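Saturday, quiet lab. Running sequence design on the structure tokens for the scaffold JK sent over.
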């Protein structure tokens, strides 16, 4: 008798993915869907898909989805969560959306400690619009708008998003993962599930950054793109947990912020 060992999560629709070959969006979608299945929250989850390659995510997730204008996913997610506090709300954003046009929304939702979860895809380039320089593009990286490579004197340095947000009191969990190997896929799944659990437990704002590939706009094969990511992106964007208030022994961001303020007031190093 045959035994099913792998199947589509219930929280994914049966619509075939439309992403480019070698793109890791499909893997991350699956991890988010598996998390919804395991927590039993598909019926009470609302996802926000802004502009970018994630713009069609509402075709793939079985939960309720809302379309947001470019960069405005955290603002829309904030409104949804405040109107529906018992629901789980997540935004699925790329680096151009989150770290460029949407940077103000990103920072202020985080510093307010909004009880939302952000799944942030960092592939160091604008994907849907043709491969332009992104806030996360690496120094000397060639893109459509930096044909001679990113010049940091002219274009500035790449933004390390989770390191920056980890400094804000409203952030409960800020972690960077990738999905290039089975081991890293499992670690990414644990991180995404923890982020959703923290939201359910009202701990604070959570963000999981997934270092990803864009074979089409990088001009590489899927396997070469994975290796380029390992060789170039991971040294600049190291994997790891950059903030976890529960691991530090606090119940939520308010408790952690109060402890930090007291330590600073007493002359300690926060």
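Result came back. Writing it out in full:
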């Amino acid at each position: 008798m045959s035994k099913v060992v792998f199947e589509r999560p219930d929280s994914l629709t049966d619509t075939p993915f439309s992403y480019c070959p070698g793109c890791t969006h499909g893997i991350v979608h699956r991890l988010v869907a598996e998390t919804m299945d395991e927590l039993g929250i598909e019926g009470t989850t609302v996802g926000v898909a802004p502009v970018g390659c994630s713009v069609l995510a509402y075709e793939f997730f079985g939960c309720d989805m809302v379309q947001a204008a470019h960069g405005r996913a955290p603002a829309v997610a904030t409104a949804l969560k405040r109107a529906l506090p018992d629901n789980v709300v997540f935004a699925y954003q790329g680096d151009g959306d989150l770290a460029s046009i949407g940077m103000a929304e990103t920072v202020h939702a985080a510093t307010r400690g909004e009880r939302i979860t952000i799944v942030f895809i960092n592939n160091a380039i604008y994907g849907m619009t043709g491969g332009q320089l992104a806030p996360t593009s690496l120094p000397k990286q060639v893109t459509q708008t930096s044909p001679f490579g990113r010049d940091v004197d002219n274009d500035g340095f790449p933004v390390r998003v989770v390191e920056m947000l980890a400094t804000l009191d409203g952030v409960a969990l800020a972690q960077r993962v990738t999905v290039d190997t089975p081991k890293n896929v499992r670690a990414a799944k644990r991180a995404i599930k923890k982020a959703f659990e923290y939201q359910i437990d009202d701990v604070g704002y959570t963000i999981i950054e997934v270092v990803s590939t864009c074979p089409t706009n990088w001009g590489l094969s899927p396997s070469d793109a994975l290796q380029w990511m390992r060789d170039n992106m991971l040294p600049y964007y190291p994997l790891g947990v950059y903030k976890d208030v529960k691991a530090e022994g606090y119940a939520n961001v308010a408790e952690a912020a109060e402890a930090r303020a007291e330590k600073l007031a007493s002359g300690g190093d926060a």
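Notes for JK: Residues 25-265 form a domain with the Rossmann fold fold (CATH 3.40.50.970). DSSP finds ten helices and seven strands in the chain. Ask whether to fix the surface positions before the next round.
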